[in-house]
Design goal:
The chain has 908 residues and is mainly α. The protein contains 39 helices and 9 strands. It has 4 domains: 178 residues, no CATH class; 162 residues, no CATH class; 119 residues, de novo design (two linked rop proteins); 227 residues, no CATH class. Helix content is 65%, strand content 5%. The chain has a 9-stranded parallel beta sheet with strand order 3-2-1-9-8-7-6-5-4.
């Protein structure tokens, strides 16, 4: 290829592959290249139907010593990491090509397309104004870290990606120099340990989350500029403002459910770190802006609108004022912004002249903006200053608000001890639900404190629960106003679970007696199948209680409700979970609307299909009509964060897809008629959910040997050892599947290539529905009902990543042949049925024929993933049969997990 030729994916892949091989040779690992080539060739032949090649690959791996195994793992893992970069670069090319191809029409998935659709369907300006005025889109980084790569690995990959982009932008010029820089960075990758030497701390996770704001700070203003332009274009006479509807949140450092390392002190440190980094960013942006707004009073006028900023600055920072008077006597905007910068510094140091809240900084920036526009500097005001105002509106002083999460059983245990120790009741936990509600409501209404100031008499667990609430109060009253605004209760089953938190808030002055002046959203998290079904009734009981209605009144009669996807999937399976969450949202919205309460649903989605994953915009458009209403909150996790928000153009695309889908999902309720077939569709889904759940629970929960099957045929033990983050793999040390966290559950099935959470029960459900209602009805549902379309498409993606041929080799690890073959027979039959039913609905000759880009990516990767699966199986054999150094085998097992995760681009 000539240096001036336009590059494409194959050129990137060829370049990266050659450079990786050169690095292996230069680093003394050249012998592994022939082994890797042979392993990939055998895997490819096995996929073409040559069974002997699979056996030959198994033998090739079995003959390797531990050093050979490590080199094979490392060479394949690095190859995957590089191909991931090439695919990301190709995605940027597709984004740019789409922008060029679709001009001047609104680009598919863009905000302009969403606003155009609203206008085209007759949604009036006042309706859009009202929609935007109440809109809230909050993306929440969570403490479920499924990112298997180290931060040092991610940073090196980012450098390589930047070089690939530079090759495109320069049309291949300077290839030799770029080639050398990429090769040097690949060698750094090759020579770096893929495993963390120690487990991540919570603050390590916080720092890792903050990395993504390096990209988001510039992507966010672009979103708002596009929204503003679209409103001007499609509603030219209405002058509709574009409010700051985007927000960011985090659970990292606030999510203490089952994580003993998230303490009150950790939460305080987290808030301090978020504030320090955000203020440092704002200081830099203000300083840059000060250097640019060099308007001279002699040329442009006196800028009288900013006098209060100059007066305040001269009063609090006299030394700086003298210096500015000498250096910039005729440049009022530069002087004003220099004072603003100094106030931000004072804010970081808690010094004199500090901003008490972001609103004070916004007032200064808006005053400068107004003065510029009045004085004829409107073009400059609409530039960097406009973006800075948006950044402060969106990111505040912390980049993200911190949610607090704890399990309901922790609050109950604490109150049991408090009530017992203070002589209120000795058996609180065994009261029936109505008695608990009455007791809690009485103490919430009581002006007298229940919990004493001195809590030393209580156990460590109860003291920590009380201290959590007290620390939140201190943070909000101190340097972190507004930095925490929600308390999530996982495991919510009954109204008393919510009232317990309100009581603990009242006891720490986060609410007043009777629920008045409540300062935090109390967010029930409904997860398991039964609790999702009961959620509407749970909320209605709460709404009928005066103390809870008073608490909601203090929060603007606004209720946040979290919907859990991963635990509900583990509980009832893919189909019943999907339908259960959909139906619960509809019924919850009906209850809240009937009671005059606005709402926002918080969607706890993971990266994998079994955890609510799939394309974000499709997931939003698939939400029940009338449940979005411009308000959406959802989690962003682990490898999903890195995939979405590391590259600027991809981050922008993800944000615009999320924003446009939210607007369309809301607007659709204004103009999309409910099909007269919806009752049939819902009846079909209800039947499918019952059918799928029956099969799923019969196998997963009721088969006494299924737990042993899972433990023996998946690398769950190895996954639990992987230092994915600060959180233990189980909520408690003992227990079976119910006690295992969703991440290792999904991760382990993915690693073994079974990907069970994405499809088990669906084949039976589709077959039964087809026999009852006909194939054409299912095709019609796929074409007209976005929920069903997403349900089918995501399952198809899961099936596309599954591989029963490879999985069968994992299954052979379990020596209980009778139970193994019985359970495996059920799984294989259900998987094959699922694929057949999906193909019948979606078309083609195999799954993913209708998604050629994804299908090509999986096909390209499989011959390289397969050798790693054989390696993982071999290591599991050696570990279980005592075949070598236990510590070294454990280390290599973790390397193999990382490699497979990179290859599948999906860790759970």
């Amino acid at each position: 290829m000539s240096e001036t030729a336009l590059r494409d994916f194959d050129a990137d892949l060829e370049l990266l592959g050659v450079l990786l091989d050169e690095v292996c040779q230069a680093s003394g690992a050249g012998e592994i290249l022939a082994i890797r080539q042979r392993a990939v060739e055998l895997a490819r032949l096995a996929r073409q139907g040559d069974a002997s090649s699979g056996d030959a690959l198994e033998q090739l791996v079995a003959d390797l010593d531990l050093r050979g195994i490590e080199l094979l793992i490392r060479s394949l893992t690095r190859w995957f990491q590089l191909i991931n970069l090439a695919e990301d670069n190709e995605r940027v090319r597709r984004i740019r090509a789409r922008e060029a191809r679709e001009q001047p029409a609104p680009r598919s998935g863009s905000i302009d397309e969403a606003v155009f659709q609203l206008a085209a369907h007759g949604v009036g300006a006042e309706t859009v104004r009202g929609l935007l005025s109440q809109a809230e889109i909050r993306l929440v980084m969570t403490a479920h870290p499924t990112e298997a790569r180290r931060r040092t690995t991610i940073s090196k990959q980012a450098r390589i990606f930047d070089e690939l982009r530079a090759l495109d932008d320069r049309l291949g010029l300077n290839l030799p120099e770029t080639r050398e820089r990429i090769r040097a960075t690949i060698q750094e990758l090759w020579g770096s340990d893929e495993l963390r030497a120690i487990s991540l701390t919570v603050l390590d996770e916080v720092r890792g989350g903050l990395v993504h704001f390096n990209t988001l700070v510039d992507a966010v203003p672009r979103i708002y500029r596009e929204l503003e332009r679209s409103l001007r274009t499609h509603y030219p006479e209405a002058s509709i403002p574009a409010p700051s509807l985007l927000r960011f949140g985090s659970w990292i450092g606030g999510d203490r459910d089952g994580n003993p390392f998230v303490t009150p002190a950790t939460t305080v440190s987290t808030l301090a770190l978020l504030r320090e980094q955000c203020l440092r960013f704002l200081e830099g942006r203000v300083e840059r802006l000060a250097g640019r707004l060099s308007f001279s009073a002699r040329v442009s006028g006196p800028a009288e609108g900013i006098d209060p900023i100059l007066v305040h600055g001269a009063s609090h920072f006299p030394v700086l004022a003298e210096l500015l008077a000498e250096l910039n006597p005729e440049e009022p905007y530069r002087r004003a912004l220099s004072f603003v910068r100094e106030r931000i510094r004072a804010t970081a140091a808690d010094g004199a002249g500090a901003y008490l809240a972001p609103e004070e900084l916004l007032a200064d920036l808006r005053a400068i903006d107004h003065s510029l526009r009045v004085d004829g500097g409107g073009f400059s005001a609409a530039g960097d200053l406009h973006d800075l105002i948006r950044q402060v509106e969106v990111f505040g002083f912390h980049f993200a608000t911190l949610d607090i999460r704890q399990h309901a059983k922790v609050h109950r245990a604490a109150l049991q001890e408090i009530f017992s120790g203070l002589g209120v009741t000795g058996d609180y936990t065994n009261l029936d639900e109505s008695e608990r509600q009455q007791l809690l409501a009485r103490h919430i209404a009581d002006r007298r404190p229940l919990v004493p100031a001195d809590i030393s008499r209580f156990s460590e667990e109860t003291r920590e629960t009380i201290e959590t609430f007290r620390v939140i109060k201190q943070a909000l009253d101190g340097p972190h106003p507004g930095a925490i605004d929600a308390y999530v209760i996982s495991g919510t089953e009954t109204p008393s679970d919510v009232l317990e938190v309100l009581l603990l808030m009242k006891e720490s002055s986060l609410a007043r007696a009777g629920g008045a002046q409540t300062r935090l959203r109390i967010v029930p998290l409904f997860e398991a199948g039964a609790t999702l079904a009961a959620a509407p009734e749970t909320l209605q009981v709460l709404l009928d209680m005066p103390v809870y209605r008073e608490a909601l009144r203090a929060l603007g009669n606004h209720q946040e409700v979290m919907i859990g996807y991963s635990d509900s999937n583990k509980d009832v399976g893919y189909v019943a979970s999907g339908w259960g969450t959909y139906r619960a949202q509809m019924r919850i919205a009906e209850v809240l609307q009937a009671n005059g309460i606005s709402w926002i649903f918080f969607h706890g989605r993971g990266g994998a299909v079994g955890r609510g994953g799939g394309p974000t915009n499709d997931a939003i458009l698939a939400l029940p009509p009338g449940t979005v209403e411009g308000r959406l909150k959802m989690t962003e996790q682990g490898e999903v964060l890195t995939a979405k928000y590391t590259v600027g153009e991809i981050a922008h695309r993800e944000l615009e897809l999320t924003t446009s889908a939210t607007l369309l999902a809301t607007g659709a309720s204004q103009y999309t008629p409910v099909t007269d077939r919806i009752e049939l569709y819902e009846r079909v889904l209800e039947e499918m959910a019952q059918s799928a759940e029956s099969l799923y629970r019969h196998l997963v929960h009721n088969d006494p040997e299924f737990v042993d099957f899972f433990l023996n045929v998946t690398p769950v033990e190895e996954v639990s050892r992987l230092r994915l983050g600060s959180r233990p793999a189980r909520r408690s040390a003992a227990g079976g599947i119910d006690d295992l966290r969703a991440i290792p559950w999904v991760f382990s099935w993915t690693q073994s290539r079974i990907v069970l959470p994405a499809w088990l029960g669906l084949g039976t459900a589709l077959r039964d529905a087809r026999e009852r209602h006909g194939l054409e009805a299912l095709k019609e549902m796929t074409g007209t009902w976005s929920f069903f379309q997403a349900l089918i498409a995501n399952a198809e993606m899961g099936c596309g990543k599954a591989d029963m041929g490879i999985a069968r080799r994992y299954v052979q690890l379990w020596g209980n042949a009778a139970a193994r073959d019985r359970i495996w027979g059920v799984l294989v039959a259900e998987f094959e049925l699922t694929c057949a039913e999906l193909i019948a609905i979606r078309g083609g000759s195999r799954v993913l024929d209708t998604q050629p880009v994804l299908q090509a990516s999986i096909d390209r990767r499989n011959p390289y993933v397969d050798p790693l699966s054989f390696v993982q199986i071999e290591l599991m054999k050696r570990r279980r049969h005592g075949g070598g150094d236990e510590d070294e085998l454990a280390r290599l097992s973790l390397l193999a997990i990382n490699g497979i995760a990179s290859g599948l681009r999906n860790t759970g």
